[in-house]
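sanity check this fold:
=====
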Amino acid sequence: MLSKEISLEKQKIQKAVDQLDRLLREIALNIHAHPELGYQEHKAVQWLTAPLREAGFSVETGIAGLETAFMATWEGTPGGPTIGLLAEYDALPGLGHACGHNLIGTAAVGAALALKEAYPDLPGKVKVIGCPAEEGGGGKIHMCDQGVFDDLDAAMMCHPKNSTMVLRGGLACVSATFKFYGKESHASSAPEKGISALDALMNSFVAINSLRQFFTDDVRIHGIVTKGGDAPNIVPAYCEAEFIIRADTRKKLLVVKEKVYTAARNAAAAVGARCEIEEGLIYAERNNNVALAQLFRNNLELMGIEVQDPPKQGGLGSSDIGNVGQVTATIHPYFKIGEATNHTPEFAEEARSEGGMVGLNQAAKALAMTTYDLCTNAEALQAVRQEFADWKAKNLGAS
């Protein structure tokens, strides 16, 4: 695919990113070599914020009461929009950076540094927002609750993958711990005195499976047994399972999860046991701003990068970026770094490969150029704002 003609203004941004390439590679590879789990990303935060401080950004750490969250702010000419570049940097247990968050965080930093270098008087404010614990910790959900994203006109991040897409969706989701309580007894000499928490658990899996045919195709329910008892000759008094429940909207998710919870509680009660459910954070469905995504796509195509349409069905996970999309105009595009699937050892290797480094450079450029568009093109900014306002009025009842 041949690249389109790039304006001198955007050539200047690309040159600024290229001048940062060695620094960005070093940061991304350092984070990759020292993977840190959610809410423990202390080294990553230091590596990401150090060049921002040096460049004159105002850096605040520990925002929203989260020790490894940060916000780095720079304003060119006052009066323009406020754009958030979201950084992720947590790793996966046992797999390290098999989702490429070392590239996500570094791309956001690179974009912000390049913009300040190329256009110190840019009419707008840029915030690099460090978001910890995306992998199951829901860092952005806590940050949404604390109003971190409320003043943004738009929020963007860019995620590595095996294809380049700008409008891929995401499901609403909730995790839950199912705790089953029975009564312990000797399984051979006095079984009649026991109540099996394990039978309650297994019956719950059967009851939940019986619901599947009555759910729509977007619903996903998956669970594992995390404690099945202590010994086979003891009637288990306590067992535990972990579930994740997904649907295409939060509204539908609330209905589905109540049916699942009722099935588990009644299945436990059928054998005389009790089920308590400890619910986790609720991840909202992804709300992609199409006008903003089109700006991003245009900038990818300016670089000669082919953008693919997302699959029409299936292939969706969940992310706390969905909650940000309920607060402000948001996109979560993907950039190709190789052929491997996320959350695999092969993808972890690609996240430190030359393909990963090239993708990092491209993502930083696209983020920076799209931010530039929002700050210098009033018509484009208004289209993004209006689309979000219309969505909010329809879905959240705002005027």
Observations:
- The chain has a mean pLDDT of 95.
- DSSP finds twelve helices and 14 strands in the chain.
- The first strand starts at residue 58 and ends at 61.
